[in-house]
Amino acid sequence: MGLGKTLQSITILASMHHERAERYKTTKSADAVHLPSLIICPPTLTSHWQHEIRTYAKALRPVIYAGPRADRGQLIRNFGKYDAVIMSYDVVRNDIELLAPVDWHYCILDEGHIIKNGKTKLTRAVKSLKAIHRLILSGTPIQNNVLELWSLFDFLMPGFLGSEKAFNDRFGKPIAASRDAKSSSKEQEAGALALEALHKQVLPFILRRLKEDVLDDLPPKIIQDYHIELSPLQKQLYDDFSHSQAKQLVDGEVKSSSTAKPQHVFQALQYLRKLVNHPALVFKPELPQHQAALAKVAGADPSIRDLAHAPKIRALQQVLLDCGIGASNALDSSSGEAVSQHRALIFCQQKMMLDIVENDLLRKLMPSVTYMRLDGSTDVSKRHAICQTFNADPSIDCLLLTTHVGGLGLNLTGADTVIFVEHDWNPMKDLQAMDRAHRLGQKRVVNVYRLIMRGTLEEKIMGLQRFKLNIASTVVSQQNSDLASLGTDQILDLFQVSDIAPPASSATTGDQPMSQKAILDSLDDLPTEGEYGDLDLSAFTASLAS
Questions:
Q1: Is the N or the C terminus of the chain less surrounded, counting Cβ atoms within 10 Å?
Q2: How far apart are CA 368 and CA 326, in angstroms?
Q3: Considering only 55-69, 182-196, 509-523, which range has the smallest mean pLDDT?
Q4: Tens digit of pLDDT for each residue in 220-235?
Q5: How far from 226 is each of 66, 153, 302, 366, CA to CA, in Å?
Q6: Which segments constitute the Helicase ATP-binding domain (predicted)?
Q7: What is the pLDDT of residues 95-145, one digit of tens each?
Q8: Is the C-alpha dihedral spanning 42, 45, 47, 49 positive or negative?
Q9: Please, are residues 480 and 44 in contact by the beta-carbon 8 Å criterion?
């Protein structure tokens, strides 16, 4: 991540298009006729790709395939005029009937791990495209399990790893079984042999580069965890949850052997994630127990937006001040327009949490802080310009981003500080977000601060992140680390407040009911930033009253 995959790919395109054009001039051969290349990327990166091509490969003619459907239909008829057609994954999915007949020279998937699930409509659409050459660019090709690698190779070289079932039988199941803490020596040996065979088959087609291998002069990245205690109101609401009907439903689903989707578990996880960020995200004034909890800890004039109830916001303020960003209060802000020594990226999972950071902290308490914002509501055509402006203008102190939108592919080396207000179940997404600043072109040490509520769901998320990182590094490298699985106790522990969260290495296993395996496998599929607003917690919140 941040090692120049985009520029290397553009160099390949420029070279191969030039070679093909020269060959056609000489031979007039049908197999040398001009064909455009297709670049598929997250929508935030379409303008970035166009800018990079125009900057470093002026002979190539790029175009972004976007806009209203009628305009896109007109553009398809003119693809032959261009060398590089750039579009988002969503556009490919929506327009696949129009795009499927087109012949492409190269098809490049930027952040290609997006097609990791071979069963989605998006993945099926991408795999139906016709191209002579195919490339996948990804800093995180494996995020959860070995089957994701099969899906990527099924795009690159269909049939190379056999069918999904055959691949799972040969590689997936033995490797997974050998990771069980109670696996037999025979299972461990079978898993090691399967992993070795998989390495031999796929590693010749994976060009893997680590920063420490190729960027000797890249400054270090220092990750620091900032542990925070719950506020009295958060503790009270957490306690109310632990004694509610909702908690009983969660316990029942976790212990059940049913294969049904554990809906109450997902709702409870979302409720607790919001609660530890800010009580206002879950507070329902119509619920008597919420009003009672607030009155109990806040006195005669309670306000849910009081920062006394939101220690994470106060901690964020302190981190910014420690970095020399902003004044401690509105009175201090009149002292001048001095440029801060450090500049920060502030990542949240939810747009609603970004709203709180912006309105309750930056506008009210730190008005001297200058900032920009990039989330799902930002017009796609303006996102690249926001990144360029932030990098070029040192007077802008902060850039507020959602991990879902701002965590992939962007170059934000204008910042040397990264602050995570929230954390993703999938560690690769947080690593991707960190490397928006820690990448080629960065000249300063990058400090990463992770705000973590002590003894809560968040501490346990960090343990799951370590667990998943081991899975990824094992498959795409020669390393072979011992991995544990999570049992019933570990899943139930996610919903408890504890003084010290158990380390990932202490996890235990056993014969887990199918619903528990589904829960673990589905953690990465919890609603993204764009879907939080559609997750109806009303019925779940009402069950807290029981």
A1: C
A2: 6
A3: 509-523
A4: 899 999 999 999 888 8
A5: 42, 39, 28, 20
A6: 1-159
A7: 999 999 999 999 999 999 999 999 999 999 999 999 999 999 987 777 667
A8: negative
A9: no
Cα–Cα separations (whole angstroms), residue 338 to 324, 368, 397, 499:
10, 10, 11, 42
User: Residue 480: phi, psi to the nearest 5?
Assistant: -145, 95
Mean pLDDT value of segment 411-438? 89
Which residue has better confidence, 463 or 81?
81
Show Cβ contacts of residue 172 under 8 Å, excluding neighbours closer than 6 positions.
145, 146, 147, 150
Q: Which two tokens stand for residue 4?
A: 């120049």
Judge whether residue 8 has pLDDT over 50. yes
Give the integer Cα–Cα distance in Å for 123 and 156. Answer: 12
What is the predicted pLDDT for the residue at 330? Answer: 47
| Residue 93: closest CA among 67, 72, 120 | 120
d(CA 103, CA 460): 48
**What whole-number distance in Å separates Cα of residue 286 and Cα of residue 293?**
13
Length reported for the chain: 546
pTM for the model stands at: 0.73
**Residue 523 to residues 290, 427, 458: CA-CA distances in angstroms?**
28, 12, 13
pLDDT at 156 over 90: yes
Q: Do 494 and 523 meet the contact criterion of CB atoms below 8 Å apart?
A: no
Q: How far is CA 312 from CA 62, 427, 505, in A?
A: 44, 21, 27
